Amino acid sequence: MPITQVVQIAQIIERVRGVVGEDGPVLLHRPLFGGRENEYVRRCIDTGWVSSAGSFVTEFERQLCATTGARNAVAVVNGTAALHVALMLAGVERETEVLMPSLTFVATANAAAYCRAVPHFCDVSINTLGIDAGRLDDHLRLVCELRPEGCVNHRTGRRVSALVPMHTFGHPVNLTKLMEVANRWRIPVVEDAAESLGSLYLGKHTGTFGRLGVLSFNGNKIVTTGAGGAILTDDEELARRARHLTTTAKVPHAFEYVHDEVGYNYRMPNLNAAMGCAQLEQLAGFVDRKRALARFYADAFAGVEGVSIFREPADCHSNYWLNALVLDKPDMALRDALLEALNASRLQSRPVWRPMHQLEMYKNCPHMDLQTTESLAARVVNIPSSAELAGGGVA
Ligand SMILES: Cc1ncc(COP(=O)(O)O)c(C=O)c1O
């Protein structure tokens, strides 16, 4: 390795350490339980309501609506299950195609596969790390046409049944342009907002622009329920269907077990929702801390050559779920050396996901030119991002 790169890596480690302070091990993302988690979970246990019925689930859904501005929220067991059902409700069927970024967590693609649909991978914008709307439009002009049944890929003959933008590391995509493209091509939008609870685009919460939106409350997210997810929608009928499908399609009855279609056991347990209520009460504080941490990183890296800290796109208020170091140039060897050195220094760091089109099970899926995705895969390193790292420095 050239000596300049050795120096560069040492400098990066010094700057990250300077921001996070302590010299012990620092995790990539640690949940913060500073609220009423114990009290609410205890209440669940004391009352015996720990499973799929209980008042915390309803309360959690109410709080999610208040936080996001969505008319309806349906709490489920995880974000992947939420995506699965949201795609079904958007009309994703066997042998249709679902547009999504290749730069995403595998759950986005898996949810389409669960519906027996085919992911169709889109490239991302360097400014948002999410789908590049202009280039998507150009691509659709090339491979798709509008027919009575909707947008059809004339190369494969398959209908394009949904578009799934994902808000990478909590940074909103350009929703104005993306919704415009989706509407013009008559493609329903399901937002994968798993990472972006608390993130706004033009003052409106992510996950509320499409027909449906999806959140995750996995242990590594800004708000956690241990495991959990939610479906957001303004459409009452879709919300009713989401509730029905995620509770095994059980027909309400005093004692009979009657199910009127194939449903899913996806309802969030009360125990998880109890933790979620306590966590949501602290969301605004978490976002403030994470935004402060991002500013500390940006200041620390100002003037460091060859690398920068990703900053929120225009018109956005990001939750900065994960901070990202971006190398000026793609360089897999440097990226890996940096990851090794950071982790060896007990600063837990991770690369961005291996792009979906490079995974064995999705390598033959249709896609547009993916040059930015491939470049970013060799440039992005996520560094410690827990809310607690902002210390008392919240502005
Ligand atoms: C972009 C994205 N989509 C979907 C998911 C799936 O969420 P979960 O882990 O709750 O199933 C996650 C996170 O884990 C994610 O980051």
Structural class: alpha+beta
Radius of gyration: 21 Å
Bound molecules: pyridoxal-5'-phosphate
Number of helices: 12
Low-confidence stretches: none
Mean pLDDT score: 96
Number of strands: 16
* Percentage of residues in DSSP E strands: 15-25%
Sheet with most strands: 4 strands, mixed
Q: What order do the SSEs take from the amino end to the carboxyl end, as H and E?
A: HHHEHEHEHEEEHEEEEEHHHEEEHEHE
Shape: globular
Task: Report on the architecture of this protein.
The protein is an alpha+beta fold and 395 residues long. 37% of the residues lie in helices and 15% in strands. It has helices at 3-20, 37-47, 55-68, 79-90, 106-114, 133-143, 175-184, 236-245, 270-280, 283-301, 332-344, 371-377; strands at 72-76, 97-101, 118-122, 144-147, 150-153, 160-163, 190-192, 200-201, 204-205, 212-216, 229-233, 307-309, 316-317, 323-327, 350-351, 380-383. A four-stranded mixed β-sheet has the order 1-11-10-7. A four-stranded antiparallel β-sheet has the order 12-14-16-15. It has a three-stranded parallel β-sheet with strand order 3-2-6, with helices on one face. Strand 2, helix 5 (106-114) and strand 3 form a beta-alpha-beta unit. Helix 2 runs antiparallel to helix 9 (270-280). The longest helix has 19 residues, at 283-301. It is globular and about 70 Å long. The model has no long low-confidence stretch (mean pLDDT 96). The site of pyridoxal-5'-phosphate (PLP) has 15 residues, from helix 4 and helix 5. Pyridoxal-5'-phosphate is lined by residues 78-80, 83, 104-105, 107-108, 166, 192, 194-195, 216, 218, 229.
